[in-house]
Amino acid sequence: MTRVSPAPLIKSGLDPALEPSALTSGARFVRACLRRPVDRTPVWFLRQAGRYMPEYQAVRKHHTLLEICKQPRLAAEVTITAAERLDVDAAIIFADLLLPFECMGLPFEFQAGEGPVVHHPVRTLDDVQRLRTDRASELGYVAEAIERVVAHFKDRLGIIGFCGAPFTLASYMIEGGGSRNYIHTKTLMYRQPAAWGLLLDKLVAVLREYAAQQVAAGADVIQIFDSWAGALSVGDYRDFVLPATKILVREVQALGVPVIYFGVDTASLLPAMRETGADVLGLDWRVPLDEGWRSLDYACAVQGNLDPITLFAEPELIRRRVHQILAQAGGRAGHIFNLGHGIVPGTPVENVQAVVKFVRQYSHPSPAPLIGGARG
Ligand code: CP3
């Protein structure tokens, strides 16, 4: 269902009459995505529900990753437990980037220690032509999990739905799993432009519908993960990836929600990524937040960007790093605190909680209302 009314935004406290001092976590998060003033910087974490967390491990002992994803009761429970344990401003639905592959006719599995494996990778125009785009409704279990999370939190927390970006998903389809040099992906991209174009179009068609299901279920924001976009030169990103990604971003925004667009190792790509029109760009930790934001002319919000491995340090160093990132954001409206990439297994939960505490302690109300744009 395509929703163009501003209803979901108002649900999240975006009524312009609302004082920033009276914000719920959900309103604080969504307002920051749209660069509206907030009472303090909102915070959540990439991979906040994952193996570092004993509660997740306990569920995982009895279920595979895909079982958790496909049983809305379990997916909702894992999502809610992580958000409550950390006391963050937003909950990202527990799912996986690769779930849409199945309904496109491309089965995969997670092999212990190896990550995802696609058994019959896509390598030819024929392979691309065989991919189905008419079965996105089979992903309804993710929307059902979102409904449960929304029923639990109501408007209190921001609810984040997500999907992969065309390039990153295409890379898993073509490589058959993770990759170092993306040789098969780039070979298809350079040598079979018709197959590449059709593949990205098909992905956009499925992802648009998948995102629409999530928004209809109550997601306040959609994050689009282009985790491996950093493997591309700026020129290749512009020529082969930006056009399809821009279409997806625009179509998700047309559902009435802000879009966060995230990738890793993207310092040089940021200005091109901004051309997608995403409301928020995720910054990885390699670029200082102030430099990254400046390279975007402050024309969108930013999310990030503590190095996730900092969470293995002493609390005092973590405190200084959090302070430094908030100082770099400079109190501008439109900063969402997060890591530069996901929490890794073995991370002490108390250090993640400490980050939340430090963000609360050091962030302040954003300055005077910024009607019509951010401060330069
Ligand atoms: O709180 C959360 O963020 C959890 C929800 C979530 C998962 N996957 C569950 C998961 C999210 C947002 C994802 C996205 C995802 N999946 C990405 C993009 C995010 C990023 O890191 O940039 C990617 C590239 C994938 C594909 C994927 N899924 C890989 C490469 C792996 C293996 C990683 C590993 O460390 O083994 C997964 C498995 C996966 N998906 C786990 C979780 C919690 C690992 C834990 C498990 O096996 O239970």
Describe the protein's architecture and organization.
The protein has 376 residues and is an alpha/beta fold. The chain is 46% helix and 11% strand. It has 16 helices and nine strands. The chain has helices spanning 7-11, 25-33, 54-62, 65-70, 72-86, 100-103, 125-130, 140-153, 166-175, 183-191, 193-216, 234-253, 270-274, 289-295, 315-329, 349-362; strands at 90-92, 108-111, 115-118, 158-164, 221-225, 259-262, 280-282, 301-306, 335-339. Strands 1-4-5-6-7-8-9 form a seven-stranded parallel beta sheet. Strand 2 and strand 3 form a beta hairpin. The model is unreliable at 1-7 and 368-376 (pLDDT under 50). The structure holds coproporphyrinogen III (CP3).
Q: Features of this protein?
A:
seven-stranded parallel sheet; 376 residues; 11% strand; 16 helices; binds coproporphyrinogen III; alpha/beta; single chain; two-stranded antiparallel ribbon
Topology:
Blueprint: H1 7-11, H2 25-33, H3 54-62, H4 65-70, H5 72-86, E1 90-92, H6 100-103, E2 108-111, E3 115-118, H7 125-130, H8 140-153, E4 158-164, H9 166-175, H10 183-191, H11 193-216, E5 221-225, H12 234-253, E6 259-262, H13 270-274, E7 280-282, H14 289-295, E8 301-306, H15 315-329, E9 335-339, H16 349-362
Parallel strand pairs: 1-4, 4-5, 5-6, 6-7, 7-8, 8-9
Antiparallel strand pairs: 2-3
Coproporphyrinogen III binds at residues 46-51, 60, 65, 92, 94-98, 110, 115-116, 162, 178, 225, 227, 342.
